[in-house]
Specification:
The protein is mainly alpha-helical and about 250 residues long. Helices cover about 80% and strands about 0% of the residues. α3 runs antiparallel to α4, α5 packs antiparallel against α6 and α7 packs antiparallel against α8. About 25% of the residues are buried.
Amino acid sequence: MKIQVVAAFNKYVLSSGLLVAFALLSNMASEAQTKSVAKSNKPFSVPCGTALRVGLDEVEKLYDREQQRRYKDKTDSGTEGAALQNALSNYISCRRADNAARLKNLTAFERTQINLMTENARRLARMRVDSIPYISFDEKSEDPINYAVTYEATALVENYKGDLAIVYKQKIDPNFVQNAKAAERDENQIGELLARIEKLSEEHDKATEFSAFKKEIGKTLKEMEDVAGTEKVVTTAFLVRLLKMNLPVEN
């Protein structure tokens, strides 16, 4: 009888031990799964050093690849739109932080000049977006097309500001002649791009918006007539990129 009791007791202890072990393993598995889910839901972000080195287009591609990895090619317009918005926000915040650091090393006069030129660029960017058919400049918009184009224009402005900061830091312009020629080529291209945009604006009832925009472009180019080559070319290059934005490819 005593042997049976001991055997039964041992059996109980053994089974209890297995239950405890199973419970521990179950908890560990649950915790691991929770951590895995938390890790997969962790916001994706490209480090600023990488983002600024590779540029906006590549940052967008990195976000796209991350979405494909997380959702196993089962993304929809919602997840793709969120990824695009996050990529643009990621890049712009990095560029703004880098610009702020660069401007600290310049004189008060140089910072003022750059800020004035950037504000003008931002105004032109807003006018350019508002002249695009079916689009309006809105940084708070939830419409994926509106905010994508708006953020892209904003990124162009921040890149322009960064380029100006680099130019102002260089006290000597070793490529003055080359830059002056590049600016001249840009101006010719600006004229061609404006002609294409004007045609589209007439077709889509945006002639009024385009007319005001074209006038401001002319003022900006006029103010740059006597500016040194390097500073002038970063402005004309910015205008070319801005005009090309969302412009259909010619047949």
